[in-house]
């Protein structure tokens, strides 16, 4: 085999392996960048991502809950927030119990509301509200406060706040969020550092 052809063939065979490495490096870099301002460790940030995936998989495995509910999930510091709507509160409670049995979860907050499921218009409105809230958090005037440390989830105008905050930061964040137009209710699920 000619050297040039051998080189091309070797490169073509190595490409899938190298692209996997690139994805791993990029993924690891993204996790590292995400933790620059985060009060969680890099390991906890990665574990929160894994928890979120495990809960979503569990949801997809439970056809009845998935069919009759619109449940969203987020995880912060190994604490899981379930939010959205369900046709039957017992279904959401049952799902929350299943989630609590998953590994590496410290707490489950079941904020799923019994009622009509939201549609694409509601989802769009909630996405816009998240952006407004995150922008408004830059108005919180506390020394060393970093708004990127607050995780914001919204469902039908109900706002859920998670994060590792100080006793000064938490109430200031809640007050700021309540002032944003479109917010119906604020649920504070902070962990306090002091």
State the helix count.
Answer: 6
> Which blocks of ≥5 consecutive residues have pLDDT under 50?
4-32
The helix fraction, in percent, is 40-55%
Large-scale geometry: globular
Helix and strand topology:
Blueprint: H1 3-34, H2 42-61, H3 63-68, E1 69-76, E2 79-86, H4 89-100, E3 107-114, H5 120-136, E4 151-155, E5 158-165, H6 169-178, E6 185-192
Parallel strand pairs: 2-3, 5-6
Antiparallel strand pairs: 1-2, 4-5
List its traits.
6 helices; 50% helix; three-stranded mixed sheet; 194 residues; alpha/beta; single chain
Task: Write up what this structure looks like.
With 194 residues, the chain is of the alpha/beta class. The protein is built from six helices and six strands, in the order αααββαβαββαβ. The chain has helices at 3-34, 42-61, 63-68, 89-100, 120-136, 169-178, and strands at 69-76, 79-86, 107-114, 151-155, 158-165, 185-192. It has a three-stranded mixed β-sheet with strand order 1-2-3. Strands 4-5-6 form a three-stranded mixed β-sheet. Helix 4 links the parallel strand 2 and strand 3.
Summarize, please:
The chain has 194 residues and is an alpha/beta fold.
